[in-house]
Amino acid sequence: MMAAARMLRRGQSRATGVGSWGNGEEPAPPGNQEVAAESRKSHRPVKRQRKAQRLHVAYEDSHGEKSEGAEPLAVTVWEPQDWCQQLANIRTMRNRKDAPVDQLGAEHCCDPSAPPKQVQRYQVLLALMLSSQTKDQVTAGAMQRLRAQGLTVNRILQTDDNTLGKLIYPVGFWRVSLAHGDRAGVTLAWQRHRRQRSKVKFIKQTSAILQQRYDGDIPASLAELVALPGVGPKMAHLAMAVAWGTVSGIVDTHVHRIANRLRWTRRMTKSPEETRAALEEWLPRELWHEINGLLVGFGQQICLPIHPRCQACLNQALCPAAQSL
């Protein structure tokens, strides 16, 4: 009975033209299994490839209006609001060029007639080394005394430490009135004494290196300048600009303070070196040389470290810090 039933179903299948695959095809002969496999492939569902769609990016233009574009946008550099007007106002306030830095800066402390040029460059570097934590007027006075003795690498190396310390005094010192038993004042005076002694040591060490390695000249690269004893990033950048005429960066305590007050950095910075890196990300390079002297004088006359003269500043309405000072 069961065999008869199987024969009956097989006959019905042939009558309807439906093979054992259920697709209306006859089973492939034993020798044609590869053809059968290809046949089965041709009847499998085909995945339809989706057409690539162009991504539309929404963005805001300089006026704050949103729009959409089909093309990828170029990366825009962050820049502070109103900086062009703020800079123009500072230029106006500094147009008389009568700040201490304009007459007593490092570029004014060297002897322009001293031959050869390497002597002038050495004097610029020495002025910068003396200027650390020292007012321009004090640095200029020390440089005048040194120049009167003959300010060259060989002359400095021939000068004993005590004499050199007297020539640069009061560089590294501030006047202090010591009351009897004033322990804090004594400690402060000792720290200042150590600072002056350090400057004498650094000047001697740097002069010896310049004589041995650079024939009395100063290095012409930032990395080599920073490697000299007592020469930091600020001095090195300024030496490159003043002595070699190469603008390599922006760095100064006044620039650091003013840039943060005007919000010229994306976030508040903690050091002049951090400020330099932040400014150089967006400030056009052709302004780097100008900005240093411009802001130094502005910081000496109006944007003072303590009690800035906001009432006399043209940027009072544009300065975020002026609203809180």
Polypeptide structure, described:
The structure is a single chain. With 325 residues, this protein is mostly helical. The protein folds into two domains: 80-99 and 249-325, Helix-hairpin-Helix base-excision DNA repair enzymes (C-terminal) (Endonuclease Iii, domain 2); 110-244, Hypothetical protein, domain 2 (Endonuclease III, domain 1). It contains 15 helices and two strands. It has a two-stranded antiparallel ribbon. Helix 6 (117-131) packs antiparallel against helix 12 and helix 9 (161-168) crosses helix 10. The chain starts with a helix and ends in a 24-residue tail after the last helix.
> Helices and strands: which structural class?
mainly alpha
- CA-based shape: elongated
Count of helical regions: 15
Uncertain stretches of 5 or more adjacent residues: 13-60, 174-180, 185-191
Helix fraction by DSSP (H/I, runs of at least 4): 40-55%
| H and E order | HHEEHHHHHHHHHHHHH
Domains (count): 2
Indicate the CATH architecture of the largest domain: Orthogonal Bundle
Output the strand order for the largest sheet: 1-2
Computed CA radius of gyration, to the nearest angstrom: 39 Å
Number-wise, the strands total 2
CATH homologous superfamily placement of the largest domain: Hypothetical protein, domain 2
CATH topology of the largest domain, anyone? Endonuclease III, domain 1
Give the N-terminus to C-terminus distance in angstroms: 108 Å
As a percent range, the share of strand residues is under 5%
Sheet of most strands: 2 strands, antiparallel
Determine and state the CATH class of the largest domain.
Answer: Mainly Alpha
Average pLDDT number: 80
